């Protein structure tokens, strides 16, 4: 059953996990309240942007007081479903995929890679960093068995669309795509693409132009 949630800009949604992370830091330092300016200085985000982001969720703070840290932390914990762990599958266990498997979102995350697939893995599976890795030919069967709704693509670019097509009709609702190619999917499968080369070029441009 879907919850009633406010419609907020995508840029704001991307900042929500950052707010949660920094609020945890303030909470761990025993801060009872925090101002938008304090958050701004810690996160390097304009305070007006923070106040605007928070305004999408109603009155989270009080003028002249700021924000109650435990209350705000609890609010974002529920908003981000931190109590409900997301089971993630990794598709493609090359260099980048192996790095993901070893990291595996260990602390302060509500996501965990529980299974992985690769064309070079044995059919019966193997274990890498405590994660079972199966051959891609049994992917659909195992995705259902493990209750997977989110997958990470770290596979070769040439195979990305083909694998995405295979996921149509499965329980997968989202793809975090680390390949540099655009992926076309039906509306019921969301795709978020992170092109590392584009991100790097953007950073280089900003450095050289002092943006």
Total domain modules: 2
Unreliable spans are none
Number of helices: 8
Q: What's the alpha carbon Rg, rounded to whole Å?
A: 20 Å
CATH architecture of the largest domain: 3-Layer(aba) Sandwich
Assign the CATH topology of the largest domain.
Rossmann fold
> Which percent range describes the beta-strand content?
15-25%
What structural category characterises the helix and strand content? alpha/beta
Q: Which strand order spans the largest sheet, edge to edge or round the barrel?
A: 5-6-4-3-7-8-9
> Could you give the distance between the termini?
44 Å
Average pLDDT level: 87
Instruction: Give the number of DSSP strands.
Output: 9
The SSE string, one letter per element, is HEHHEHEHEEEHEHEEH
- Give the CATH class of the largest domain: Alpha Beta
Shape descriptor reads elongated
What proportion of the residues is helical, as a percent range? 25-40%
Binding site for NAD(+): 92-97
Function: Modulates transcription in response to changes in cellular NADH/NAD(+) redox state.
Organism: Psychrobacillus faecigallinarum
DNA-binding region: 18-57
